[in-house]
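Input set for joint prediction.
Command: fold jointly, output tokens.
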Amino acid sequence: MSFHIVKRDNCPLWKKCALYVGAVVIALLLGSLLLLALGVNPVVYYSRMFTMGTVGNKIAYKVWINYLKSFVPLALTSVALSLAFKMRFWNIGGEGQFILGAIASAFVAFTVGPFLPEPLTLIVMCLAAMAVAGLYGLFVAALKVKFGTNETLMTLMLNYVALYVLIFLAEAKADWNFFLDPGSLRPVFASFADIVSFPSIPLGGQFSLNLCVIFTFLIGALVYVYLKYTKHGYEIAVVGDSAGTARYAGMKVNKIVLRTVFLSAALIGLAAAFKVGTAGILSTSITDDVGWTGIIVAWLSQLNTGVIFVVSALITMLHYGSTVAAATFSQVDSSFANMLQGVILFLVLAADFYTRFRVVIVKKGDK
Amino acid sequence: MKKILALLLAVVLVMGLTACGTEPDTDEFIVGAIYINSRNDTAGYTFAHHNGITKAMEELGLDVNTQLVIVDEVPEDKEQVLAAVDTLVGEGADIIFGISFGYIDAMEEAAKTYPDVIFSHATGYKSNTTNFNNYFGRAYQARYLAGIAAGLKSLEIGNNNVGYVAAYGTEYAETASGINGFAMGVLAVNPNATIYVKNLGAWADEVNEAAFANELIDSYNCGVISQHCDSAQPQIAAQNKGVFGCGYNSDMTPDAPKAHLTAAIWNWNVYYRTAMEAAMNCGEASKFVETMGSGAYYGGLKEGFVDVSPLSENCAPKTAEIIAAVKAMMVNGEWDVFSGVKLQISPDGTITKVDAALVDNNGNEIVPAGGASVEDSVITGTMNYFVAGVKEG
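tokens >
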């Protein structure tokens, strides 16, 4: 007996959904085996994880506020990455672009923040972050179109350059370094929350909705329209399918690559401005790994803008929920969330395989 | 019927009330903790604190499985620390311990946001008068005792070079005070000794911890190796080269039985127990700092917060006797390390007090002869010098 792998022509939507949901369920079952080995009841753990501890919580509104704080940078970064990925430009530099965007917006907050009206400062912060992050991406794109360098390696390694610039700022105690708190003997980042921060709209009770959340959904809708209904979007799709075809059709491929990568990196910078403008302070872990997690989200969503928002919401829930669930079980640490996320990714990618291929068992004698 | 029901209800209510009244608050007391690394660590800083918290809870009859809530792997990021605080408060925490220095501003802000919850921050220097304090220990006292053991050993083997593998040097008062305390212990016994310090530039770096220890032994001809770093690598290196050493944080005799003398250790449970008792007894969170007596807890040998691990057989004769005598002087408060009074200790066990200025290794006078101890410079962060006798390698 042997088996053949046969291409599936059209996998119906319900079958796709069933495969993906099945993958997640299997991942959760694998996770529950580990939880059982640790002596933890998986049902209790997962129910706390999915409700993120909001049940019976006096300050449940805080959970939602914190949840959205993690959701916004992840969703926006994933959308931004999908732009470049659509063109088969492997932007692995989300972390670095995010960090430079964060530094740029903090720079603006500290330098011109005290003199400008708050809304204007916020706009300048966003623009500065977009420009700096965008140029960081554009630099790699320019090298690629000019010299044919490998963008995966370039963006990856530039992440560390950006990270060490940030760490340098975090540790260099000097008069010129206004990023640090002058009142502390040890180097600690200074807060600019008193100078400028994104406003929130009170929505009844103690919950208030940060303006960045609305902007993020708006940008998501714009990117969807951009990719689906504009000439630029069409060009990105064609370049992604085949650069040769695009060239033959008279498209200026280099220009398209440069433009799109700049836009992708600039949106990541904007995500950083949202994060820093809400937190009011820098930190060496300011990215919260969105540059990496965003790759996973974009991939799991198959670069579909709408799906990216759903997957971002779920991954954030997984992360935030795991922390809350782990809080009350002394045996389970926060690493469990990362592991579960890895298992889910593997299984969903495997399920993805089955949406496009099927396995046919061939009996002896058959052809 | 109604009357009976009413009566029953009344009885139940009264019973309920008495049950509440007689019930000790310990059953409902929730301890929260924010860790920099994983709670499942088996060595290192987070491990030492987690051990201290669970031990203190067991001593007080608190259930670690139901009354301890933890958020771990929290980086020194204000937003993430505040989110961790929200999670712990949401789980009903009455007191929240944050163990890493960089949590300082978040802890201060959280204490304002949640006045009904107690916040307690390790290694920091901020506090308020109600529900926020900081805690640290006089590790330099234990270092001094370990220095005595090292000094006696250096005399016995006839080698005046002593090595010290340090996470950081004068950048942090924590490391500088450890190096200074140890050096002064060595010099009290062996005034001709030199303490060579190698700076790792990282709190934990196992590869360089071993490499630097080997360099101190090979290039600086050191006969005793002390350390301020996470692993036992310097002690293992000392054993491999046939020299001796003093560990840190935990008893490292099992790691290097032929080399290790004694280690300066922390008993974090001593503070955690004190803090939890104060939190349970103070009635409301705003009385916590008042109950503790001060916004900064700074325990030492006297409280048993720091100590030296049991002396190994490698120690020179009379070490135990001398250490016990010097420890007693610090416990009863008659003398302290960073003062203008020095101890001169001879190997036969006689201890003499001499007025002598505390001088840094650039010749600047820190404390005049006979002056008071500058022990507070350890927690205020102003001890940013090495004492005379210390050389940077």
